[in-house]
C-alpha cells in the first residue's frame, strides 16, 4: 500500500481483516480501502447492502484496491438482531436477482448440501471426530440431507453474526464482510440467525418481517444448515487452539441437535 502513503494518505489497518483492509485519512476525508476485493462488491454497493463503492484501482504490486465510503458507526448488539430491520435487509439480499446474476457470472454454482457435507468431512480432525456430540451431529447430517430447491436458492452471506452488521451514525444498516458469499439455500443464513439470536417464541414474528412462514420444511432445513455450520466452527476453533470457544460451540451443537428431535 506504499502507493497511498506516497500520495499523503494516513493508513490504519482495520482489525479482523488480516492486513487486507485499511482506514485511510487525508485532509479530513476518510475511506475504507481493501486489497483484492471480489468484483461482487460493485453489485453489493449498487444494492445498498454495503457502503458505497467509490473507485477501483490496480496498484504497482498488481493488486486491486477498492475504496468505499468510510462509515462511522458500530456493529449491532446481540439483542438488536431481533429488530425488524435485520430480516428486512436479509430478505432484500436473498431476493436480489442482481446479486444472484453477478455471482453466476463469476462462475459460482449453487452449493449442494452433499457437497457441503463432503467438504466438512474432509476437514475434520481426529480429535474433533472423537467427540460424541460431533459424531451424533454427523450422523444426523448424513441421514437428513435436505433437497436444494430452485425457489430456495439465493445469494447467502454465510456468516451473519452480529459483528458483520454495521449501523452507521446516520442510522443506515449494512451487512459487511462478504468473503464467504455463496449461492445456496437461504436457510443457511436464516438458521444460524434464528438459533443464535432469536428466542424460539419469536421465530414466527421475526420471519414475518422477512416474509416467510415457519413451516416444518423450513425448520428441517434451518436445523440441518445450522448443524453443519456449527461443526465447521468447532473445527476452526480447534485448528486455532481456542478450546474454550470450541467447547462453547460443542454445547451449542448439542442444543440444536436435541431441539425438534422429531424432524
From TrEMBL:
The keyword Transferase applies. Keywords: Kinase, Transferase. GO terms for molecular function: kinase activity. Pfam families: APH (PF01636). Residues 16-224 form the Aminoglycoside phosphotransferase domain. InterPro entries: Aminoglycoside_PTrfase (IPR002575), CcrZ_PhaseVar_Mediator (IPR052077), Kinase-like_dom_sf (IPR011009). This is Thiamine kinase. It comes from Aliicoccus persicus.
Amino acid at each position: 500500500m506504499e502507493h497511498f502513503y506516497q500520495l499523503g494518505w494516513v493508513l490504519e489497518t482495520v482489525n479482523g481483516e488480516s492486513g487486507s483492509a485499511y482506514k485511510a485519512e487525508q485532509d479530513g476525508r476518510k475511506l475504507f480501502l481493501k486489497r483484492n476485493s471480489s468484483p461482487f462488491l460493485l453489485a453489493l454497493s449498487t444494492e445498498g447492502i454495503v457502503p458505497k463503492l467509490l473507485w477501483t484501482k490496480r496498484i504497482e504490486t498488481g493488486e486491486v484496491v477498492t475504496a468505499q465510503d468510510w462509515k462511522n458507526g458500530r456493529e449491532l448488539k446481540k439483542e438488536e438482531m431481533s429488530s425488524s430491520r435485520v430480516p428486512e435487509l436479509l430478505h432484500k439480499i436473498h431476493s436480489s436477482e442482481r446479486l444472484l446474476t453477478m455471482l453466476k457470472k463469476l462462475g459460482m454454482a449453487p452449493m449442494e448440501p452433499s457437497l457441503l457435507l463432503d467438504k466438512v468431512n474432509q476437514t475434520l480432525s481426529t480429535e474433533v471426530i472423537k467427540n460424541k456430540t460431533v459424531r451424533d451431529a454427523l450422523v444426523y447430517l448424513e441421514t437428513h440431507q435436505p433437497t436444494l430447491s430452485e425457489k430456495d436458492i439465493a445469494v447467502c452471506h454465510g456468516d451473519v453474526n452480529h459483528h458483520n452488521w454495521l449501523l452507521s451514525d446516520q442510522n443506515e444498516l449494512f451487512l459487511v464482510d462478504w468473503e464467504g458469499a455463496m449461492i445456496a439455500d437461504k436457510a443457511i443464513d436464516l438458521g444460524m440467525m434464528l438459533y443464535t439470536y432469536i428466542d424460539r417464541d419469536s421465530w414466527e414474528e421475526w420471519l414475518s418481517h422477512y416474509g416467510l412462514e415457519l413451516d416444518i420444511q423450513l425448520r428441517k432445513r434451518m436445523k440441518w444448515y445450522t448443524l453443519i455450520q456449527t461443526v465447521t466452527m468447532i473445527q476452526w476453533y480447534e485448528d486455532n487452539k481456542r478450546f474454550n470457544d470450541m467447547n462453547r460451540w460443542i454445547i451449542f451443537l448439542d442444543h440444536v441437535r436435541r431441539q425438534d428431535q422429531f424432524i
